[in-house]
Amino acid sequence: MKPIKLLLVDDDPLVRAGLSFMLGGADDIEIVGEAGDGTEVAPLVGELRPDVILMDIRMPTMDGLAATEALRKRPDAPEVIVLTTFHADEQVLRALRAGAAGFVLKDTAPAEIVAAVRAVAAGEPVLSPAVTQQLITQVTGADPQLDRKRRALDRLDALGEREREVAVAVGRGGSNADVAAQLFLSVATVKAHVSRILTKLDLNNRVQIALLAHDAGLLDEEDPSGGRSRP
């Protein structure tokens, strides 16, 4: 298997050195480059074609949020893991909404950072729905809550009934196998539904599906099969 190509982005050279040291020992991860500011990211992505970027959220000229938003507009965008000091941070939540696949704290254990890079490269988010909901609960975004809920519901109107059920199940943290068992579908059918949901709603990953379902208030309804309900 080809190694996971990783780009490190942080304005502190000591942080980059530490990350390079801890990640360099993983046989399946290749650090292809480093950057000290978000302005350097786009040219390096074009040149180095990384699979995953570890992106500092706070940098002097272009921060990680702006860099992530710009990257995720590319058709061949690499996955982004946000590096942060605080888990409940408005910029972290905005980065997730912009398409980041998750975040890790800078004091996270090395083995967990390695695992996060591997998970994101495999198409999996690196935070649980519970953590996502904690972020949403603790951080007030720029939009009023009711406006955000209305807009989320309007976007979800584009989905068919079964796609909507799949979106809610994904929002509650279900793997493809979990969703398949819950909705009496095959795993292949669930994968197809998730792909269509991402395309219809112009989303990048399952984290964004979870955020949208949460914003719409669909994760708060009761489920007769286990405490929560399908809408």
Q: If you had to describe this structure to a student in words, what would you say it looks like?
A:
This protein is 49% helix and 12% strand. The chain contains 11 helices and 5 strands, in the order βαβαβαβαβααααααα. The protein has a 5-stranded parallel beta sheet, with helices on both faces. α9 (176-183) packs across α10 (187-200). It is globular, with a radius of gyration of 18 Å. Mean pLDDT is 84; it is low at 224-231.
Keywords:
single chain; 231 residues; alpha/beta; five-stranded parallel β-sheet; 5 strands; 49% helix; globular
Low-confidence runs: 224-231
Termini gap: 41 Å
Report helical residue fraction: 40-55%
Average pLDDT level: 84
Major pleated sheet: 5 strands, parallel
Largest beta sheet: what is the strand line-up? 2-1-3-4-5
Q: Number of helical runs?
A: 11
Structural class: alpha/beta
| Secondary structure: number of strands | 5
**Strand and helix order:** EHEHEHEHEHHHHHHH
In short:
The protein has 231 residues and is α/β, with parallel strands linked by helices. The chain has helices at residues 13-24, 41-48, 64-71, 90-98, 110-121, 129-138, 145-156, 161-171, 176-183, 187-200, 206-215; strands at 4-9, 29-35, 52-56, 79-84, 102-105. Helix 8 (161-171) crosses helix 9 (176-183).
